[in-house]
Amino acid sequence: MHEYCESFSVSLTNRYVCDLIYLLQLQYEPSFIEDRLKLYEALKKEHDALLAYRAANQSKPIKIILTDGKMTEGESWKTTPYQLAVGISQVLASNAVIAKVNGELWDLDRPLEGDCSLELLMFDNEEAKAVYWHSSAHILGEAMEGYFGGCLCYGPPIENGFYYDMYIEDRGVSSTEFPLLENRCKNIIKEKQAFERLEVKKEILLDMFKYNKFKCRILNEKVNTPTTTIYRCGPLIDLCRGPHVRHTGKIKALKIFKSSSTYWEGKSDMETLQRIYGISFPDNKMMKEWEKFQEEARNRDHRKIGKEQELFFFHDLSPGSCFFLPRGAFIYNTLVDFIREEYHRRNFTEVLSPNIFNSKLWEVSGHWQHYSENMFSFEIEKETFALKPMNCPGHCLMFAHRPRSWREMPLRLADFGVLHRNELSGTLSGLTRVRRFQQDDAHIFCLTRIFLLLPCFEATTPQFSLHLLPTFGFVGCNFHVIFSGVFSFWFVFLFNGLIYWL
């Protein structure tokens, strides 16, 4: 018997172990969930009574203009967008993600309050997609809360999917736990839990979320009104502006694909949170297409190619700083030589500027007031210094270190200086987001009264950029010119060219 048990335990796969853990954890629901639900049920009872009163005593005929211009009728505080959609077509009602009432996103089951225009949005609409992924984030949040028992923070939709942040003390998230969370999400979806909306007084919500210091911070720091909205699906109740899909069953395919650590509101001196990313779609075909695209993207990933071709690599002992191997260094230097030749062709003079500057310079430039938390700073002989995150202030010192003649104008300076930026570890991503890099920076110092008579503008962008970008396969780029300050001290930011008007 002992030998049988031993062989059985050895033969268990990680997946079976995960399933056993999942079954065990179902028995230990966080205690705050029950307390939160009791308060919610009391509030929901009041809300339903108020809605019933309005439907009985304040309802009146209303006119609703549909997307095609046709007008239909309804009753205020009774008629919902979903009911109108069913009246048009059951397929339309089934496929609609969210409604838009008088230009405002609106829950499909929320009663209309007066005359309005009505639009029904499908998943292919960007606003509807954001709502769909926001609702999916709540499903993930419910699964995370039940599994980890931590404090949920933010759970927004993003460009491609959604994420939820959670504070879990002294614990990380492993990819081996993704199947467990996905199983929970699938169960939540099968239950078709309705999304319910309530508007509640701020002081009541502070009591409801007293177990979660992060939600209390949001209420105290972000909510400037006497009331705000919460949404419920199943046991999850969360601060949320909404709107949401009708019920969790609308999410047909959901996948958890990544986790990382982050800081509360991106501040490195605050609590460390665990962030879990997901994606969802209204059918499995779209999910399979997404998975195929992700596989192709992984095969094209520059980090994978760089390692396979021995071009470069990254190491945990220097996060965000690339190690260029001989082949990579050759390509790197070839690119520098190419840009250097283009600079010389446009009469730029190459300079070298220091990497470390006293914080007094950054105070003058404004970096210290607005960017200091993204800079690497340290003390030397009781003075604060920082590694430069950009070359601009150093070039200003170069220009100002002696009197200049108008004959020197325009003065074109180019620099391949090494820059450092204190990016959060969770945001680092290969060569696209780093802490140490070199930037081909160019600045033009020019007199305003003769600027229009000189080819300064041609020497920088858009001509310079339009010449270079197609070389690397970038086409259809847009340029935005920004003017700030008084006319005599304009700063014109154009691509990597910066013109100083004197």
Reading side by side through the largest sheet, how are the strands ordered?
A: 2-1-5-3-4
Number of domains as seen in the coordinates: 3
Tell me what portion of residues adopts beta-strand conformation: 15-25%
**How many helices?**
18
Unreliable sequence segments? 1-27, 484-502
| Radius of gyration based on Cα positions | 29 Å
Q: Predict the CATH topology of the largest domain.
A: Threonyl-tRNA Synthetase, Chain A, domain 2
CATH architecture term of the largest domain: 2-Layer Sandwich
Shape descriptor reads elongated
Identify the CATH class of the largest domain: Alpha Beta
- Describe the largest sheet: 5 strands, mixed
Helix content: 25-40%
What is the distance, rounded to the nearest whole angstrom, between the alpha carbons of the first and last residues? 89 Å
Number of strands: 25
Averaged pLDDT, please? 88
